[in-house]
Design goal:
Number of helices: 3
Largest sheet: 5 strands, mixed
Strand order of the largest sheet: 3-2-5-6-9
Strand content: 35-45%
CATH superfamily of the largest domain: Carboxypeptidase-like, regulatory domain
Radius of gyration: 18 Å
CATH architecture of the largest domain: Sandwich
CATH class of the largest domain: Mainly Beta
Low-confidence stretches: 4-20, 124-128
Distance between the termini: 30 Å
Number of strands: 16
Length: about 230
């Protein structure tokens, strides 16, 4: 039933999902304000003029919407029984991740209405890490070590060490081999084997890790792949 609802929602709001041109991604976590737990199946809807698209959160409250045409959007976040939120002018940038973490409060009364908030590009939202490096297409394609994800990071990000090309990354003295990698919001095991040409952006977090990434003792690498429409 859940898969049917997701398919139906994406069919209804998917106009423009495959639009030509530059695209970015929207990613984040929606939680219950009271207990901090992720809200499953919360609706994330983006609208700009006649273009509407969106998606749902997973069982941990996480979502990742890829292939969004560049521009400013009104983003609506809602779930049954919670106070909905509407954010104006959320900016989606070319080959980049826009992060959006929000907590929803239990709704008082039966009326459905939105709480309007001013959008602020706060990277990872509440709990933004203290040490973060964003590598865009220019830094990735222009890397002096184009052999892989790890080589690019070791050459570009402070406090990250790699003994030899292809070895595990070491973040500020942490144990090697414990780096958390995520591609388009999905956790992967080990260093991803991706061609540099297919990477749109990498965000490397070396300290002050938000709780949403679990109990990893090393760094976090968030990768957004390019969309070739």
């Amino acid at each position: 039933m859940k898969n049917i609802l997701v398919a139906l929602f994406l069919t209804v709001v998917g106009n423009g999902l495959y639009a030509q041109g530059s695209t970015g991604s929207l990613q984040g976590t929606i939680t219950d304000e009271l207990n901090g737990k992720g809200i499953e199946m919360a609706i994330i809807k983006l609208q700009a003029g006649t273009q509407t698209l969106g998606g749902y959160t997973d069982d941990r409250g996480d979502f990742s919407i890829k292939g969004i045409p560049v521009g400013k959007y009104t983003v609506e976040i809602s779930f049954v029984g919670y106070q909905a939120i509407k954010l104006e002018d959320v900016l989606i940038k070319n080959s980049s991740i826009t992060f959006l973490n929000r907590s929803l409060s239990v709704k008082a009364g039966k009326e459905f209405e939105f709480v309007f908030e001013k959008w602020k590009d706060d990277l990872l939202g509440p709990g933004t890490p203290g040490t973060m490096t964003r590598l865009g297409p220019q830094e990735i394609s222009g890397s002096a070590n184009p052999r892989g994800v790890g080589d690019i990071i070791a050459a570009s990000v402070p406090k990250v060490y790699m003994k030899d090309s292809g070895d595990d990354l070491n973040f500020s003295g942490s144990r090697s081999g414990s780096t958390l990698y995520m591609i388009d919001g999905v956790k992967v095991i080990g260093e991803p084997q991706l061609p540099n040409q297919g990477i749109g952006e990498m965000i490397v977090i070396t300290g002050g890790l938000p709780a949403q990434f679990g109990d990893t003792t090393s760094g976090v690498v968030l990768i957004t792949t390019k969309s070739f429409h």
